[in-house]
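INTERNAL TRANSFER SHEET
From: sequence group
To: structure group
Subject: Cadherin-6

Please process the attached sequence and return the structure record in the designated field. Keep the field labels unchanged so the import script can parse them.
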Amino acid sequence: QLHSDQDKGDGSLKYILSGDGAGDLFIINENTGDIQATKRLDREEKPVYILRAQAINRRTGRPVEPESEFIIKIHDINDNEPMFTKDVYNASIPEMSDVGTFVVQVTATDADDPTYGNSAKVVYSILQGQPYFSVESETGIIKTALLNMDRENREQYQVVIQAKDMGGQMGGLSGTTTVNITLTDVNDNPPRFPQSTYQFRAPESTPPDSPVGRIKANDADVDENAEIEYSITEGDGYDTFGITTDKDTQEGIITVKKALDFENKNLYILKVEATNTHVDPRFLYLGPFKDSATVRIQVEDVDEPPVFSRPAYIMEVKEDVPINSVIGTVTAQDPDAAKNPVKYSVDRHTDMDRVFNINSGNGSIFTSKPLDRETLLWHNITVIAAEINNPKQSSRVPVFVKVLDVNDNAPEFAMFYETFVCENAKAEQLIQTLSAVDKDDSYSGHQFSFSLAPEAASSSNFTLQDNRDNTAGIFTRKTRYNRHEMSTYFLPVVISDNDYPIQSSTETVTIRVCACDHRGKMLSCNAEALIHPTGLSTGALIAILLCIIILLVTVVLFAALRRQRKKEPLIISKEDIRDNIVSYNDEGGGEEDTQAFDIGTLRNPEAIDDNKLRRDIVPETLFMPRRTATARDNTDVRDFINQRLKENDTDPTAPPYDSLATYAYEGNGSVAESLSSLESVTTDGDQDYDYLSDWGPRFKKLADMYGAMDSDKDS
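Return from structure group:
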């Protein structure tokens, strides 16, 4: 309550309030000055309120006293329970931990005033999780309370912790939280095989690195603590089998290291050991972290192909052995207990020429064709051995046959020798050095001897000197040679080797006699120059000759076609040209038709004979119709026409319509005058055409035409 000394109780003063919560949380009675709270106050929201109060004259509104400030403090009561910082705690500790091992610390807070009473004093206790864990009441630290807790027995624990204020006394408020505790794994369990003996079967045909079986030792631990390494510690199959670890399944995979053979050994006994790879020294007292088991592997018999006594065979044979000679033997046996018989054959894909054959029963290889070391030194064939009862069971072996050399080839010149000798050569002059080769093989080196053939030794104009180093020289025997007397000499040379049996051959050296200058340089040899083998080959010469022949044939054909085109007439008629001269059915276009022929010549019989124009083309100069002089008489025109007719008969190139020109001119002073129908129309009087009948059969049609006209007029 507020009260002013100026207040006389007559209601003249008025109390007003301002500050924190004035008018909302706190109100004042303006008449009495009583201050009241309108709502429940919470110290945890605001513990202190500062207010200002003043008394004023109700009528004037002026303060009668200075403003007063006062503080309202909220006293705490225990109205808040402790709250943990997390709703759920998660923690983990290794299994087999000692008692008192720290697990986790939980924390709870109380919103009440810690300075006022015990409202904010919190103590911790465990409601669930005993006897495995405990909690410190002051700090909230959770520790292990039981020795040797084993993860393999129980892995998860749920602990409930309570926090209570008022120091844990009666009437205090409390809150709880849950702590999930997980035991982590340690390597405290050794691997253990579920059985002491394992049995597997493996066919003897199992290839190396193939699996035979799987075994597994169980380990209660997890992750790296359960990793196991398998090994074969002893047994009669230590070198035959191996074992590896499957990292995903922790199984031991037994594999074959080398080929199995049922006939040699059909049972193997192994001792396999499983060991942890990560051992914790703290738990060695629990025993050795490994275990062992016995593995028995039974090898099963399968039908195997024959096996050769060697992986490959090398045989040698001389090239002169007769056909059907045995050069060697291959041997193969069935490794199975049944010992099935074997037959042999040669793979013909490796002996396409069938040079060799084999005895199918005993495997002896013999020749079926002659051999030649110089053609082929090595023969590589493949022999097949197959079981008679089961031919699918077969095996192969390579056989390498080396053909040994015998002296069956005579030596010969190393090259073709064609030399020359100068006409002015001197005696004992070297003109050529010879060398020889031999296809045969000589282990001690070839040694050739050279000599002239007996028939040329005494009568030859040349001598031969053996140099004893597989070469020989040809020397002149006389001074000066004459190429006109003898242009070419053929010198037979005998070459022999020193092998057994001795082989020899006779080779011929061609020596040409040539004209030379004073230095011995060849100028010419008879009628032709010396041809060296380095010239054009025969194939090249033939190709050049064929090209020349084809070119000549092309030129001849082209010329013939050109000539044929020139002689071919432009107009080809099925009728003979002479027939056109005597047979015509058209009178023509009359005197005005000057395109088909030149009528100027007929109009002027004395025209120059040499000035002939082609009738099958348009002439360069067209003759315009002009009046010509009258011919001397009809005889001249007839002779002229006959002359033209003869020319046309003898000219094969004249077109057929040239013959019309011979009748284009009727002659000057004709009895019938003009034959033109156009000109006839212009005449004033009638004409008598009876004379046409006297002209013969050629004018019969014309006479009939004009005779009929006269008859019409008379009628």
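Handover comment: The first strand starts at residue 13 and ends at 19. Residues 527-534, 570-580, 605-633, 679-685 have pLDDT under 50 and may be disordered.
Transfer complete.
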